[in-house]
Each structure stands twice: as C-alpha cells, then as structure tokens.
Amino acid sequence: MTYRLWWTVGYVCTTEKEFRAAKHRLIPAIYEVLDDALRRANQVARAGGVAWLLEGDDKTKLDRPAIERTVQKRASELAAPGRG
Q1: Most buried one in 14, 15, 37, 77, CB count within 10 A?
Q2: Handedness of CA 49, 55, 56, 60 (dihedral sign)
Q3: C-alpha distances in angstroms, 25 versus 16, 19, 45, 80?
Q4: Are 32 and 74 in contact (CB under 8 A)?
Q5: What are phi and psi for residue 64, nearest 5 degrees?
Q6: What is the chain's Cα-based Rg?
C-alpha cells in the first residue's frame, strides 16, 4: 500500500487554486503507512507549510481540511513515531 502526500512550504502555493495549478509539477512524498504520511503532514504544518492532499492506493483521499482535522484529532498518537 502506498500513500502520496503533496505539501508545500513557503510561497509555492498559498491557495487551493494555486495548488491545483501546480500539482502536476510537484513531487509527492510517498509513504507505505498512513500514519507516517499523517505524521509528516503534522510536521509540515508545524514548520509553517501546508499539506494539501493525501491519496492512497486504498482509495483514501484527504484534502487540506480533512488532513488538518485528522492530524488535530490524532495529534498525540502521531507525535510519537512507532506507537500504535
């Protein structure tokens, strides 16, 4: 199973519209475990970036608001790698 996370830091994309326009040029980060992708999304957010989209081979598809909600809800689990 693979999960692809598209994220940016800085001025690359500041709106959803800009992200959609640039998505074909961005290289997603690839993870084998959903929690690893969510953990990275959490790290990106703490660094001032934006996790725009998370898609998995299992039909998982989380947009920015869904990623933010999930990370907020599971923050304590995602803070410690290797747990769970």
Answers
A1: 37
A2: positive
A3: 15, 10, 21, 32
A4: no
A5: -55, -50
A6: 12
Residues with Cβ within 8 Å of 79's Cβ and at least 6 positions away in sequence, in order, are 42
Environment class of 52 (CB within 10 Å of its CB; exposed 0-12, middle 13-18, buried 19+)? buried
Residuewise pLDDT in 10s, the chain (84 residues): 999 999 998 777 788 999 999 899 999 999 999 999 999 999 999 999 999 999 999 999 999 999 999 999 998 888 766 544
Phi, psi of 81 (to 5 degrees): -65, 145
Q: Check if the beta carbon of residue 41 is closer than 8 Å to that of residue 7.
A: yes
pTM, full prediction: 0.87
